[in-house]
Design a protein that fits this description.
- The chain has 296 residues and is an alpha/beta fold.
- The chain contains seven helices and five strands.
- It has a domain of 161 residues: Lysozyme-like.
- A five-stranded mixed β-sheet has the order 3-2-4-1-5, with helices on both faces.
- It starts with 10 loop residues before the first strand and ends with a helix.
């Protein structure tokens, strides 16, 4: 386990992860922290510098990480010595022994740090100064290391040039971050002039046109209804015409049957009359014969 800090904290050492693209937010930053913890755990010196890992990352060699949107993630307790700055040989002035390591996720040889990251870093440095009651030394990793390194990248710079120099200037600037100006109240637009008499007449006519359009639609609907009713009635008349023609045909057939029946009835009457006369004649002949037989 890393030894506890001894003596006075001297300030903040700034690093980058050299991994791109930078984690965009706190969710991606936590995923990166988990990955870095795994990779650091495989180092030959991992078990020697391992901490209790109160924040879940016992092997990471930074105290804080910052995402591209300015999100801040604490990954180690500040009490632990973390071997990140390569300056343990400096003793009381060593950032390893008495400094706080802050890593901006991303590769700032290529990527560029932004204002959100600057604001987070400035606030963190001010908090360190307040808690430890110090005028914090702020250095980039390459300013502390005994061996050559590009960390924290040319676009972050150093305490005397570039973006990191501006961070230090902002830490000491009471007006940073600047207070945004109060919102400008919206200007009420002037009331438009009223319509002229001619314009009023045009508007009135337009209203009448709209009303006439509505009346036209109503009339069209009524016409459609009447046409539908007439069509239905015409269909009914056609059906009645067909029925009438059928009845007329049946009547004509009945008339023919009637004539045929009357003709047959007449024949039957004649036959009956002839049969009746023959019968009477037969009877009279029989009576005559009978009388003749008696008289004789």
């Amino acid at each position: 386990m890393a030894i506890l800090k001894s003596g006075q904290t001297i300030g903040v050492c700034v690093h980058h992860s050299a991994v791109k693209p930078a984690a965009k937010n706190i969710t991606e930053l936590k995923a990166r922290a988990k990955s870095y913890n795994t990779s650091h755990s495989k180092k030959s010196w991992a078990e020697t510098i391992k901490t209790k890992g109160e924040f879940g990352y016992p092997y990471i060699e930074y105290h804080y990480m910052i995402a591209y949107d300015g999100s801040l993630l604490q990954v180690q307790n500040e009490q632990y010595v973390l071997y990140h700055a390569g300056d343990s040989f400096r003793g009381a002035k060593s950032f390893n022994l008495h400094g706080i390591a802050v890593m901006l996720d991303g590769n700032y040889e290529d990527e560029k740090p932004n204002d959100k990251q600057m604001l987070t870093l400035v606030k963190l440095i001010r908090d360190v100064e307040r808690r430890y009651k110090i005028d914090a030394m702020v250095r980039g990793h390459k300013e502390t290391s005994a061996t050559a390194t590009a960390c924290p990248g040319k676009n972050i710079g150093t305490s005397t040039s570039g973006w990191l120099q501006q961070v230090i200037a902002n830490v000491n600037d009471k007006n940073y971050p600047p207070t945004p100006p109060p919102p400008v109240p919206p200007v009420e637009p002037p009331e438009p002039p009223g319509p002229t008499e001619c314009e009023k007449e045009v508007l009135r006519l337009l209203d009448e046109i709209e009303e006439l359009k509505i009346d036209k639609k109503v009339l069209e609907a009524e016409v459609d209804k009447v046409v539908a009713e007439l069509t239905e009635e015409r269909n009914d008349l056609s059906l009645l015409q067909v029925k009438y023609e059928g009845l007329q045909t049946s009547y004509n057939l009945l008339e023919l049957e009637k004539l045929d029946f009357q003709e047959k009835l007449s024949v039957c009457k004649l036959e009956l009359q002839e049969g009746k006369q023959n019968f009477i004649k037969k009877i009279l002949d029989a009576i005559g014969e009978w009388l003749s037989s008696i008289g004789g």
